[in-house]
Amino acid sequence: KMAADTPVDILQKVLENEILQSAKVVEEHLDAEIQKLDQMDEDELEHLKQRRLEALRKSQQQKQEWLSKGHGEYREIPSERDFFQEVKESKNVVCHFYRDTTFRCQIMDKHLTVLAKKHIETKFLKLNAEKSPFLCERLRIKVIPTLALIKDGKTKDYVVGFTDLGNTDDFTTETLEWRLGCADVINYSGNLMEPPFQSQKKYGTSFTKLDKKTIRGKIYDSDSDDD
Q1: What pLDDT shows up at residue 1?
Q2: Which residues contact 162 (CB under 8 A, 6 or more apart)?
Q3: Segment 117-148, tens digit of pLDDT
Q4: Is the pLDDT of residue 216 over 50?
Q5: Residue 193 φ then ψ, to 5°
Q6: Pfam families from the xrefs (predicted)?
Q7: What is the domain-level CATH number for residue 102?
Q8: pLDDT > 60? residue 220
Q9: The pairing of beta strand 213-214 with beta strand 154-160
Q10: 131: phi then psi, degrees, rounded to nearest 5
Q11: Which of 22, 129, 123, 124 has the alpha carbon at shortest distance from 80?
């Protein structure tokens, strides 16, 4: 008499069957694509090739246009006046309002430098909060560091301190990338429903609690230990 399948055996068989079914669907899709290409005549193939070349050319043109407007690098702008000009000429802008003496601004700088090179569709800027009191007041920036996330000339969202980034100093670049993706200010290819910091094993163990200090005489608080 054969032994009955255990729940584990049954689950394994179900999974194997699902994997086989998925592989079959992919294979059928590929077969259909190959058959479609086989049935194309020379004119149709040439037309397809030209369409792809045109798409590639437009993509390259767009890339050059972005680079000419200062995308692809993380840079500091000297004044509030420059901010308005920079924002006007680009669809997606991330602007870091920083302060020289705030340690956490340096952490933000490190991640933004990486993301500026990766996401050339977005302009990455930094502006000294102490030199831009009008903007800080207008944008209600009270915590340093703050990222203003701007789309089509309008401030759409803010990343204030590190609260949205796992509330820790050692958040990853991927976590900041995810947060910018949530605001649709970069082309994000990951899963917006799963913040990267939730899957980090160290999250919750090596945890740095942020505190907010008031800077007397300033219009903003500092999210810094100033050490």
Answers
A1: 52
A2: 104, 168, 169, 171, 210, 223
A3: 999 999 999 999 999 999 999 999 999 999 99
A4: no
A5: -75, -10
A6: Thioredoxin
A7: 3.40.30.10
A8: no
A9: unpaired
A10: -100, 5
A11: 129
